[in-house]
């Protein structure tokens, strides 16, 4: 295994804005109730009028995840869908989707600039560098800007420890997965540092053509210039390469024939992110920071989802594509927080500027489709072969300069005792200067919007509280959607390319109430949220019969549901956690066609596909008194049934899945094992089909029973 990183440390509290707040918070329960993401400053849960959850360092450490989705799915109301080899899509107050309605943050800074959303962005994360994860459900565009619609996930990394610490471990499974990981650090005088690295290799897995490798290195240096001033440097570098085995047909899925139809598709990523932050506390009531940052991403694909094949037109021929999406970002964000004694008022205000030049190209590859035996028109593909690459036949070819500018402010105050009111707003302006080589056009597009939120918390007693909020969401179309040729245009000599220049930004209005209570000296905790969200011009992907994608904006959509989470610790030996959501996602106004001959004119009143009404994750953990430092747990993942297509003809039944974990620490050594898919359940992460009666479903198959094992050495000079 290459590029094995040795480093130094792991521990810490939270990052950047967390620093000051968590110095004042000593008890574990208090630490778990301090959140950063919802208000951009350290805030208690009872002062936050949104649905927010925190995954703690203890949970992350005990999960021993191969991929981040195993951790994030423990959050009530969240379903992070595994697409294999750490690739993923998301469902938070939305169906399972790859659309740009989620914001992924790393220590409060977006991983991608606005306009260049990538649903796989979290595959760049170093699992061995996580201190905690905060998940905000619902729009927070008024603070973080566009794409913060369905939810926002903030991955908070480790900070330097006071005393020297070091961790080193290996992790593997029975299907060829191997990972080496190391982390460590210390504080010497005014300088603290923390380094964490992982090197992952997958070979000869349960699915053919599913190898991948990933190497990540994170480094942080803190310079405490004075007790009130800090300079913080954070750098991440990662390389990723994966075969893309893709989905399988229905017969292969139920026969557990996990054979890829390709041996040439791939995804690769080369990512660098670095930032420098200056923090200053003016006094106990006033603080500021300014951050300068750089992103440099190179993304390349020969995607399995890009293969287009029709069983009726010419079943022995197909096409695919090769594409490249490279961008850099140069930006800065500054923020000031000011507190006043009058009504316990707090004001948070900031501004951001981001310049991101991007280049993108995609061209056609001709494929041969080797068919399985079957009735004409109902045949399936056994394998694809590349016949020819066609760099002269472009699907997209553009350069663009993206300029993002934003200003935001939030005010919170106590008009009366036990009542906290929060009001916030933000203005975003995204300008795109583009040069589209396919139609030889140049020009500019501007998307701008003011978003607003207002909420209140009422905490009548120490053990219970309630909140309500109204928030707006805003998401312009991604530029890869705008400048991609429509199906049936471009990519063929003599066919005029047509593009999605007229896609409109999506807007959302979210209404929400919720609350929490804690009984039995914090042994029993429960929280809940009820939401109703209306969408306008929501960008949707239409899967066509040949597997190509057409983009449309729905006139109106509706998303509503209830999220709930509970934890009960009857004794030191047991911890019980439950969480889930019941949701409905519907088309209200979505016209598909104006042609009277088309069988489906609109989807009004239909359920959105890939939208299970029920989903949840629960866990029972046992820490026996008779064997200290031992733990074991059983986890239950539920995904309910959902429609495979937009016309609501066929459902997938969903699944119930069980995982088991065990671990024991002996002195400085920790040994552990996980059994994923304990009952060897046959299930799929996702099932989809086109909107025609003879369309064949495609299954993103999930892994059979998998045994994960590892050993870790933990060294610390902590007194």
TrEMBL record:
Residues of the TonB-dependent receptor-like beta-barrel domain: 216-678
GO cellular component: cell outer membrane
InterPro entries noted in UniProt: Beta-barrel_TonB, Beta-barrel_TonB_sf, Plug_dom, Plug_dom_sf, TonB-dep_rcpt-like
Entry-linked CDD domains: ligand_gated_channel
Keywords: Cell outer membrane, Ion transport, Iron, Iron transport, Membrane, Receptor, TonB box, Transmembrane, Transmembrane beta strand, Transport
Family per similarity comment: Belongs to the TonB-dependent receptor family.
Protein name: TonB-dependent receptor
Organism this protein belongs to: Flavobacterium geliluteum
